[in-house]
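Severity: low
Component: inverse-folding endpoint
Summary: output formatting inconsistent between runs
Steps to reproduce: submit the following structure tokens with default settings.
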């Protein structure tokens, strides 16, 4: 929307071309000022940005700076302060990355008037407003006026809600705001898409990773050689990708592998089987070869010797593992080894491993390291087989 044309103001310094002034800057009482949101949610306040001798370029710069500066009391400001806090810095790198993504999703949400949610004073946030935000992200919306179209992301909506709830609680404790507008906001239902491989897809992909990993590195159709071993460990340990990625020599015992669980799950020990032993031995041998090739020192402490390494012998990052997995999955589909409908995630192997665990839900819970049966049910996709009732004889 184009505003009214700026009228000529005879009091503006003569060296300023008034027709070239940026939108959002004003002249009064021998000063240039802009309007900024009130931290308490009241009427916008005037902020002086330049004096009468300022050049036109400086005025344009002041307006641009105001767009990128976090105004105290806004969502932008609170999110930035939270990321600078000790509480945030104590989080793992993966959690920090996810929180920053959730913060960006909230801050860049476009309101009906075309403004960003991040530039709005949090004192004006209400529970109904936050509920609408969560439900809109979950259900999506078509483009309307200044608001762009949003795809439906139910899981993302709940992640944003959990981030904001925690961030506002921190802000209250540190005096940055007076209330948490996310308390009382209800999460949306998520579609339970585990992206778990079918038994046949898992076997097919395992053979594909083994064969393509044996090809010359970076040749056409090759995949990183360690992926077949990663897949085997993720399945047998019922582990997340990050839990496999951070395995060290300290996790291997005579009886089996101790899994370093995340997300509050309990660590457990999975007894060796042939596939686990073959995968571990292969990764250990591969690591020794590349470490020797590049003359890298071997840490004397077992807990510092990461099992997964790159082709140059450096510890493999989780992001590199995720990228390698997605490229291998795409290659398998393009080469006709796996139907697109059978694509699955690395995390889906945890679902497959838990679902293939023998016994009842309690046995699967112990194997997965879950603290509650409810969490195990989310991962256990096998239908229970039960005996019919047996009538008592009279």
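Observed output (run 2 of 3):
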């Amino acid at each position: 929307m184009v505003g009214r044309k700026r009228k000529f103001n005879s009091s503006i310094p003569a060296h300023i071309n008034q027709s070239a002034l940026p939108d959002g800057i004003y002249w009064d009482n021998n000063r240039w000022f802009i309007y900024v949101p009130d931290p308490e949610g009241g009427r916008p306040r005037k902020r002086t940005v330049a004096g009468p001798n300022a050049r036109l370029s400086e005025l344009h710069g002041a307006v641009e700076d105001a767009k990128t500066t976090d105004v105290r009391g806004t969502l932008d400001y609170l999110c930035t302060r939270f990321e600078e806090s000790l509480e945030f810095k104590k989080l793992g790198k993966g959690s920090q990355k996810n929180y920053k993504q959730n913060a960006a999703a909230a801050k860049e949400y476009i309101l009906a008037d075309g403004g960003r949610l991040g530039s709005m004073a949090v004192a004006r946030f209400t529970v109904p407003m936050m509920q609408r935000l969560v439900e809109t992200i979950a259900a999506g919306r078509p483009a309307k006026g200044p608001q762009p179209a949003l795809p439906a992301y139910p899981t993302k909506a709940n992640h944003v809600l959990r981030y904001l709830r925690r961030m506002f609680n921190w802000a209250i404790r540190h005096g940055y705001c007076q209330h948490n507008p996310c308390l009382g906001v209800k999460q949306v239902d998520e579609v339970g898409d585990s992206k778990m491989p079918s038994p046949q897809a898992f076997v097919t992909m395992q053979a594909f990773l083994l064969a393509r990993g044996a090809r010359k590195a970076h040749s056409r159709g090759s995949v990183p050689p360690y992926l077949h071993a990663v897949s085997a460990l993720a399945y047998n340990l019922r582990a997340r990708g990050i839990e496999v990625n951070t395995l060290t020599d300290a996790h291997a015992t005579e009886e089996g592998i101790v899994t370093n669980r995340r997300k509050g799950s309990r660590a457990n020990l999975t007894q060796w089987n042939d596939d686990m032993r073959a995968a571990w031995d292969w990764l250990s041998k591969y690591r020794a070869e590349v470490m020797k090739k590049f003359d890298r020192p071997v840490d004397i402490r077992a807990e510092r010797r990461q099992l997964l390494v790159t082709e140059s012998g450096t510890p493999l990052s989780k992001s590199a593992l995720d990228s390698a997995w997605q490229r291998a999955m795409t290659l398998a589909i393009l080469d006709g080894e796996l139907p697109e409908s059978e694509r699955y995630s690395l995390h889906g192997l945890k679902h497959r491993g838990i679902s293939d665990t023998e016994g009842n839900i309690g046995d699967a819970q112990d194997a997965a390291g879950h603290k509650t049966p409810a969490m195990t049910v989310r991962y256990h996709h096998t239908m229970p087989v039960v005996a019919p009732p047996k009538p008592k004889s009279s």
